[in-house]
Predict the 3D structure of the following.
Amino acid sequence: MNALHTFRIAGIAALITGVCLLAPAQKLKVYISADMEGITGIVHSDQTMSGGDYQVARKWMVQDVNAAIQGALDAGATEIVVNDAHGSMRNLILSDLDPAATLVTGSPKPLLMMEGIDATFDAVMLVGYHARAGTSNGVLDHTISGGTVRSITINGIEMPELGINALAAGCFNVPVVLVTGDRAVCEQTKEILGDRVVTAMVKEGVGRNAAKTLSLEKAHELIRQQAKVAVEKRKEIKPYKLSAPYRFELGYHRSSQSEGAMLVPGVKRIDARTVGIETKDYMEGYNFLRALISLGRDG
Ligand SMILES: [Zn+2]
């Protein structure tokens, strides 16, 4: 091997190394929407609103979220965005959040529980979610606003929040890969999103305000392990979509609430307590739904 040959080989090797260094690293973006009622150990609204137990419960919330972040990192996530999706949306304590994640905090925000989602994400995880209003043994069961909403159906399917938000993610072609919460929400996940979606059951309701719960340590282990499996399975899980047009039906508790909603053009009265709207665009219907829930608060 002469000197020129050695020089050429060295040059080619340097070129290959350079190309490798310049090649962009494989991106894997994970979006987490974090609610509170399905967090490990939580069973009462004193824990989810600013009652006596709230300060302790919000620490449990950030710990469940951190376990999901760790699982996503184990699966190779390169970017993680966490959206605080409960109540004031200022529950997650930033100083306690895993520094690998970016936090969307505060409200109101345009996409509410799904603020920050877009088509650049590879997977969505719903942490601390709960069953829809009217679920037996569903810990703190409700749909968006317990005081206002009796039921929400979309194209004939009575939806828990996980379905409403999975459809929003589906608009951006992103699949929900993991749901964590009680037994009831895990069952509704499989029923609505299908068997492939991964769940982490951290407690089992024995009433609306009582549950048999895993220890924090066991729950965090489970969430981390299931989050890793879920992100690794992301390509096998289809984004959740229904076909247009979207028929939204909002059931209130009282007929007076429907009367307020009827002031909005395009809204139809389905029965005394139920109003409906049909849209071609899902996110437009989602926004209508939010507006109708706000109007119903005064009825
Ligand atoms: Zn909530």
Remarks:
- Residues 35-37, 86 surround zinc ion (CB under 6 Å).
- The mean pLDDT is 93.
- The radius of gyration is 22 Å.
